[in-house]
Here is the input.
Amino acid sequence: MPFQKITSERLASAVIRQIEHLILRGVLRPGDRLPPERELAERLGVSRPSLREAVADLSEQGLLTTRAGSGIYVADVLGNAFSPALTRLFASHDDALLDYIAFRRDIEGIAASRAARHGSDTDLALIDTIFRKMETAHGKRDPSEEAALDADFHMAIIEASHNVVMLHMMRSMMDLLREGVFYNRSVMFRQRMTRDALLDQHRAINEALQMRDADGARAAVETHLAFVRSALRDQHEADRHEEVARLRLEQEAGR
Here is the structure.
């Protein structure tokens, strides 16, 4: 008969499943440090040998990494989403930028719609909190803080969509944005009129989400990223014009 005696699940297996779940759901992020062994074992209610067995298994899977004298960390599971060669290719071709913005517009529009419908009250409170920080940073002359919060705001919407595949895919995409692979966000925030328009657009997104208006949230995200796409294209054209003007000035000065 194809039956086997049922045995209790190993404690280590239960620990593995819990940590896997936290990583999958984006609660534990790449680079996060786990509590010290003794504390973590107590919080999980397991023995230290069971915890060590679980950590060894997760390390073998490539989900955790142990640093000598430092502790246990969530591995950079997003590190291989794009190869270095492809990342350099993205950075060196303007058409990749426009495709990137178009991709974000489509995916984040879906994420905003899902967040309005499926996000918890806590999810929406987090989005609102980040937006309020953006409003405060907007009054500062240095745009870098507001630009950094911009990425956090968009990532919070994706997290509120509660789709784990979208979460990890877009976290990888947002990392490229933070690293300035496609464009330097701070440049967009330097112009006062553009900066004001961006804040108004984020306000419209936040208001639609807080009202749980799925169609309105999606439309607001699409409008915002269409504006970003157009502004970046205009900036690239202005940069080319400036280069031509500079060459003309040099030519005229040399006559």
Summary: The chain is about 75% helix and 5% strand.
